[in-house]
Amino acid sequence: MDTKNSLITFGQKLEPIDVIATEPDWVQARPTWIERALNRALELPSGGWYVVGASRDIRNRPRRYRIDGREYVAWLSRGQPKVAPDACPHMAASLADGSVRNGHIVCPWHGLALEGERHGAWFPLPTFDDGVLVWVRLGSEDTATAQPVLPNRPVRYLDTVIRKDARCDPEDVIANRLDPWHGVHFHPHSFARLNVIEQTEDSITVRVVYRVFRRLGIEVDARFHCPEPRTIVMTIVAGEGTGSVVETHATPIDPGRTAIIEATLATSERPQFHVLIGTFGGLLRRLVGWRAQKLWAEDATYAERRYALRKGKA
Question: The domain 50-143: what is its CATH number?
Answer without folding.
Answer: 2.102.10.10
